[in-house]
Amino acid sequence: MTLNELNYFSSLGVNDIDKNSVELFGKNMLDVTLPVKERLKKVLEKGSNPYFRKSKDGWLVKISFSNNGTSFQEIFEESIKNR
């Protein structure tokens, strides 16, 4: 996944997403015992949109992150740069 793809994914709204292309919450969860950078690498390798998940009832959920520290976007960008 490139920075351009990541920025594109973050700019999408729920009406822009095909429900069938979004993973369910909890499906293929990452090993939480791994360091954050390792988990991010695994997400990058999968190539899935990290900003959207689907509930078991089929509702699309856009995930956003607070600005009270290092943002998800910053961590992702740093991970891509160091790849």
Question: Quick summary of this structure?
Answer:
The chain is mostly helical.
In this structure, how is the largest beta sheet organized?
2 strands, antiparallel
Please, how many helices?
A: 3
Taken as a percent bin, the fraction of beta residues is 5-15%
Give the overall silhouette.
Answer: globular
Overall radius of gyration: 13 Å
* Order of the strands making up the biggest sheet: 1-2
**Proportion of residues in helical segments:** 25-40%
Structural class: mainly alpha
**Average residue-wise pLDDT:** 77
Contiguous uncertain segments of 5+ residues = none
Query: Structurally, how many domains make up the residues?
Result: 1
Distance between the termini: 11 Å
Number of separate strands: 2
Helix-strand sequence: HHEEH
Word description of this protein:
With 83 residues, the protein is mainly alpha-helical. It has helices spanning 3-11, 36-46, 72-81, and strands spanning 52-54, 60-62. The chain has one domain (3-81). It is built from three helices and two strands. The longest helix is centred in the middle third of the chain and has 11 residues, at 36-46. The radius of gyration is 13 Å and the shape is globular. The model has no long low-confidence stretch (mean pLDDT 77).
Give the secondary structure arrangement, pairings included.
Layout: H1 3-11, H2 36-46, E1 52-54, E2 60-62, H3 72-81
Antiparallel strand pairs: 1-2
Helix pairs in contact: 2-3
